[in-house]
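User: Fold this one for me? It's NADPH-dependent aldehyde reductase-like protein, chloroplastic.
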Amino acid sequence: MASESGPAMASLPLQDRVVIVTGASRGIGRAIAFHLAALGARIVVNYVSSSAKADRVAAEINSSSATMSGLRAIAWRADVSDPEQVKSLFDTAEQTFGAQVHIMVNCAGISDPTYPYIADTKLEIFDQIFSVNTRGSFLCCREAANRVKRGGGGRIILIEH
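Assistant: Here's what I get for NADPH-dependent aldehyde reductase-like protein, chloroplastic.
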């Protein structure tokens, strides 16, 4: 049996750390969720529009982590531009895994479907993009900062779109 400082621990540096990855149902967020899970983390796969994709990511993490004990990943819907849903996201992570959130990776973001033609961008589209990409980043970072401070430390990673 390996000691806590032996090879088993070195290969899973994030063993049982609780991680929220926003925008994790696809793209960069999905890849980050898989990578952190491979390092031993317990993952909350946050999504807003595709429960099927998010459920698939969580299921793949759980099946690939069969040698690790307990639930390794869940999918949770939360609109990052809504403060109550962001709070619920963090509450769910802590309740599900029985530990504080140690790491929050913010990958949620949307883009203008008319890009790169800003002349065609409608104000409503801009407001939606700003709400998710800027307000959502702020709300997630603020909630994470308060949680990790109470829990003794952690990491906040912000990926801009």
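One thing worth pointing out: The mean pLDDT is 90.
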